[in-house]
Amino acid sequence: MLRVDQFHLRSVLIAVALAVCGADARADALDGVLEVRSAYVSVEGGVYLLHARIEYPVNPAIRDALHDGVTLTVDLDTRIERERRFWFNTDVLELTLRRELDYHAVSDRYLVRDVRSGSQRSFATLEEALSDLGTVEGWPVLVEPQLTAGNFRISVRAGVRRGRLPASLHALLFWTDDWHRVSEWYTWSLPE
Amino acid sequence: MVTPGVSGPPAVKPRWRGIALVLLWAGVGVGALLLLAKSVQNSGEFSRLQPWILLLNVIGVVALTVLLARKLTQLVRDYRAHVPGSRLTARTVAIFGALVVAPLLIVYLFSLQFLNRGIDSWFHVEVKQGLSDALVLSRAALDLRVREYSRHTENLAHSLANATAEDVAERVDEERRATAALEMAVYGAHERIVTAAMENPLESLPTRPPPDLVRQVGERRAYVSLEPQAGGEYLIRTAAPFTESPTRADDRYLVAIYAVPTQLAALSEAVQHAYSQYGELAALREPLKSSFRLTLTLVLLLAMLAAIYGAIFSAQRLVRPVQDLIEGTRAVGKGDFGTRLSLPSRDEMGFLVHSFNDMTKRLRRAREEATRSQRVVERERERLAIILARLSTGVVVVDRELTVSIANQAAGAILGTDLSAATGRALPELTAGNERLGQFVAALVVRFGAGREEWREQLDLDSASGRRTLMCACTPQPGADRGLGYVIVFDDITMLLQAQRDAAWGEVARRLAHEIKNPLTPIQLSAELMRRRFLSSMSPQDAEVLERGTRTIVQQVETMQQMVNAFSEYARAPEMRITRFSLNQLASEVADLYRSHDPRVEIRLELDERIDAIEADRGRVRQIFNNLVINALEALDGVAAPRLEIATRFEQRAPDAGYAVVTVCDNGPGIQRELLGRVFDPYVTSKPKGTGLGLAIVKKIVEEHGGRIDADNRPEGGARIRVVLPVTDSTRSAAGTRERRGQLRREIV
Question: What is the fold of B140-269?
């Protein structure tokens, strides 16, 4: 919920700031399709595994930025809520699968790096790298004991932003950074 | 009247509002500081709080803008309406604003310039070029290795095409050892492993070939890739089909993985890292500049708006006591001395306000005192006016030009004119047609002309209606400058003098009657005795002398007796016998009597039928008629066509006061002017014969009946005597009572 609020608030504030300061509006650098095409969970040995297909945007601006040395952080946000009939849903957990995509200029390859495990793969083309990023197979998100009685909803959202910035610069770029997009939530209910 | 800055509950509200505003701003400031401290400790937290901080700032800007717009609008409106203090406020705000805004703008522009140049300086062209060259160099160094390993792999694959399976395995293992490859494996169709040689003998299986490798080799083309690894190492993956001819059915291919030497890998990774870092920063160049500009602009806006608002707020707080003082002064100028200003502080301004309040308090007390004194004076004046109106004494206050400032009713009555409207007019202007007032003014002019300012004299004023004697006193107006005004007080003492004369004459008459009448009888008897005794014994000559002498004595004694009787009649005061009779009938009887007595004189009667009857002493009223007619007939002696008119008339002067007015006129020579005032005195007569007591007796009888009598000359000639008698006895008694009370009821004649 906080993320949604922050996103909307930030959009409003950016709009206000742009209007106040008279800055010219610029095209979104992450222009293109960004959506969760499909997603489901499977249970294997009491572990819930997430499977998802995501389409990430690809355009010359992204390619140029990667070639210039920019690292993109690709997040897959997962949220599991317990549904309540007469009140707001309650969060069971929130998880983010964070990976980085950058261009290795020396080898002329695109690297996809798992931030948590540190493992990386390289691809000859950007499309292959994005395809790899867009295919999530068997990501363990929770174990059965975490789910008590009731109905649960799973929401998945993909996000792309400019990564690996110093915190101070990240704060400053709040105003004008258009390298930040998130998809709509892809939501479904868990069968009981 | 609503006064500005009045102390009490209304003055408290703005103070509390100001304190609340200060507390609010202090809270916002402390909150911002706390957020800042938190962000410094934890940049991640700052990232989360960032929108709220920004929202706070934007709200601050909007709130300040709204507040400032309201303040400025109000200030402009006040300035145009010339509201007191608005110009001072505007000037103060302009000075404060300029003092704050100018440095802020300078700092802002300087900071912008500094930031733009600083950020631009990070990205020198030389740096970028150097990094690009290093990158090319790294690539070139690695390419040598890549190509070498690729060629070697291709050659090995071609040489293995015709070898047996055992030879292939042996050759692959030997080649791996010879080239120090990490792994070397031969795959068949469907990625089936034919043979593999690993550097690490514990690893049973080679790395699965990536899809692009499989795809490319399937097309019978060699494959090579330089793959960076997580630890900064590089792997060179090469692959080559055993045969490049698509017609041959051999699907085997050789895959070899080599490690790039550590030193080369480290150098290349360093170049990659530097290039990546630089590129990332370079991409942030414009966004950074924009962000700095926007942040600075926001800070500038906040600071400027806050400074201007603070300037207006402070200026208004400074000017508020001045405005209150101006409003208070205006209120005092309009006469509102109840104005109280609330004390703004204990500084010099507070002292000024305290002094103002003290001044208004003193002014209010002074005005209350003045009002009280004025009320006392007004009351005294009213009392004086009442006293003056009730006085029988005439009082006139005039200035040097004889302009009247005060004149009471009695003064007008005595002087024979209405002085109620004379205030502000000069006395000489009022003398036209009033002989008595003219003589009075002339007497004043003579005395003032002689420089006499304080005097007391008796003035005799003659007019057609008779002589009036005034006892007049003049004194300079007290309190005023000497000579500026005079108070003239006068009394009509005509009646008093008349009464004194009447009393004196009564005494004379009584004494004459008593002292002279007594010796007359012995004289007459002695003369008659002498004639009887000696007349017969004397010679005829002597007898004739005696006869003539005694006759003369007796005649003169008789004459003297008649005179003494007349005096006796005048002096005596017989008891009146009041009866009710017809006055008109009595008048007719008298007229008839004298018509027969002297037919030569025409006697006219004009009787008022409204006079039914009067209550009086009939005998004495008849004497009034007799004396008046005899007086008139004597005056008509020698007059051609003598005429006598007797008229009666009824006058209702009050609902219970009816009067009968009897007028006797003749066409004789009239009364001499010098005798006009004394015609009713004894022994005042212009006729050669008569005692001179006729009219005096008439007057005495009239006054005994409570009536009045006066005499004047008719304009067409002849005398006119008018007698006013009360019709009823009660009216006479009432008239007598009023007369005794001494109330002034003078009639203007």
Answer: Beta-Lactamase (3.30.450)
